[in-house]
Write a structure and sequence with these properties.
This protein is mainly α. The protein is 57% helix and 0% strand.
Length: 68
């Protein structure tokens, strides 16, 4: 076992808690998709109004620029 892996193992064993941060890659790896039937069924009004292609890119839409 390398020294860095041994150091990590010790840190994990001695930790009171471990916080795991996960982004979109985590859900994608689990099979979650950002477009498709579910997206079109539940977000048709947003797709029509803002021309979203998927949930991921919709998350970056500058809504605040509309009326904030």
């Amino acid at each position: 076992m390398s020294a860095s892996i041994a150091k990590l193992k010790t840190a994990i064993e001695n930790a009171r808690a471990i916080l795991v941060g996960a982004g979109s890659g985590f859900s994608t790896a689990a099979g979650y998709t950002y477009s498709g039937k579910r997206f079109y069924e539940h977000f048709a009004d947003f797709i029509e109004k803002y021309h979203f292609g998927d949930m991921y890119s919709a998350g970056f839409y500058p809504f605040c620029g509309l009326r904030c």
